[in-house]
Amino acid sequence: xxxxxxxxxxxxxxxxxxxxxxxxxxxxxxxxxxxxxxxxxxxxxxxxxxxxxxxxxxxxxxxxxxxxxxxxxxxxxxxxxxxxxxxxxxxxxxxxxxxxxxxxxxxxxxxxxxxxxxxxxxxxxxxxxxxxxxxxxxxxxxxxxxxxxxxxxxxxxxxxxxxxxxxxxxxxxxxxxxxxxxxxxxxxxxxxxxxxxxxxxxxxxxxxxxxxxxxxxxxxxxxxxxxxxxxxxxxxxxxxxxxxxxxxxxxxxxxxxxxxxx
Length: 262
What we know:
Layout: H1 17-34, H2 36-56, H3 67-97, H4 100-105, H5 111-139, H6 148-172, H7 175-192, H8 204-210, H9 214-225, H10 237-258
Helix pairs in contact: 1-5, 2-3, 2-5, 3-5, 3-6, 3-7, 3-9, 5-6, 6-9, 6-10, 9-10
């Protein structure tokens, strides 16, 4: 009797969208590790700023708060903006310029899948960065206070918002325009978003404008959720979370709808 051999025919079914995103996350982490100088700057600059301004202690603190307690939320926000909007946006823009994204566009990975993978990668980096900054702050007497859940929510919404803004520029503008635009927006968020100096030090028109910025909403949310009291100016947690959530949704929708592979 003839023995029936097993079929050698295989079906090359594409991976599920979830697995495609996970594979792309691994690829993005590998690329990030290869850009060692950018990764070092991403981690070192916020640490240096936190240590420098905490040591100087020249800006008055709200009642009942310490210098490190006032600075840590702003430095965390600055790190999120730099990693998501600036570093990710510029790196993706040049991937598009050099044709890397064009090759990815011929794969089963969708635009939303690529954007999701890049944002997840930044989230993973931010987890490590958060732990490092909190560890440094602990050396200056900072202790865990406030609401860990709301702090995590703010960090996630902030990462989505600024990563999506960077990807929207990278997917719709030339690499040079993304480079300039990301850095200009970064400076705007840095100087009038309350990262270092309190918003009360700003002129009234700039102070009013700053309240619609995602950077201000992120910083004030972190100040409220990581503080022992609500004495920070603009500490309306519900309004700030709403502003940050709206920015996260708008930025993500714009990034997905306008992103081009080439």
